[in-house]
Structure formats: C-alpha cells, structure tokens
Amino acid sequence: QVQLVESGGGLVQAGDSLRLSCAASGRTFSRDRMGWVRQAPGKEREFVASITWSDGSTVYAAPVKGRFTISRDNVKNTVYLQMNSLKPDDTARYYCAAKSYGSTWDQWGQGTQVTVSS
Fold first, then answer.
1. Phi and psi for 89 in degrees, rounded to 5?
2. Which residue from 38, 4, 33, 28 is spatially nearest to 103, judged by alpha carbons?
3. pLDDT confidence of 107, banded at 50, 70, 90?
4. What is the pLDDT of residues 44-77, one digit of tens each?
C-alpha cells in the first residue's frame, strides 16, 4: 500500500498560480507512476498529469499542457503540480494517485480543492 497526502489547494483568481504537493509513504517502490487526477462537481474524474519515480517521464492532458508542470523529489518522496495561468475551468478537487506500470490508478489520496474565480 501507498499512502498519499495532498496539500496546497485553495481559492485563487483566474491567471494566478498554485502549487500542489503530494507526499507519498509506504511501499512507494511498488507504484512507479504518480499522477494527478481532478474531478469537478457533476463531472467524471479527469486525468491531469503523471510522472515516474524512476526516470521522470511525464504525460499531460491536453487542457493543461503548457500551463501545468509535474515534478518529483525522490528524496522527499513528494510529487508536485505547478499550475500557472489558472482558469475557472480548472476548478476541481485534485487527487494524487499512484499505479504500477500497465495498471490502473489504484492508490488515492483524499484530494485537495482548487477553486479559480473569474
């Protein structure tokens, strides 16, 4: 099992920046890919970005590419999501997640709320 704890959410205005953090503990070696998934009210969960502990390879969803940056600190076992040029459409609860290669997201944090006002 991997325990994931998110932090850094809040209320910001459109155009502002915010950085989310996800502290991982437990059997982190069992889940190489870490990611962020968001869910807006009344909508399904939506993939945002992911990164691997091993080589740092990243994947981004089209709506956030060029505005969001995912990174990781292998010493601190922490993954970050730097969000720039935020839009009201980015308003959602952001979840940190982990998975093994070729698997589905199966480890989840409790989420952190991001609200972007226009």
1. -65, -15
2. 33
3. very high
4. 999 999 999 999 999 999 999 999 999 999 999 9
Strands (E) across the chain are located at: 2-7, 10-13, 18-26, 33-39, 46-52, 58-60, 68-73, 78-83, 92-99, 107-108, 112-117
Q: Which residue has the tokens 């945002």?
A: 48
pLDDT at position 102 over 90: no
Q: Hey, what amino acid is at 39?
A: Q
Closest by Cα among 28, 49, 27 to 37: 49
| Helix (H), strand (E) at residue 63 | none
Hunting for tokens 């290669």 — which residue is that?
101
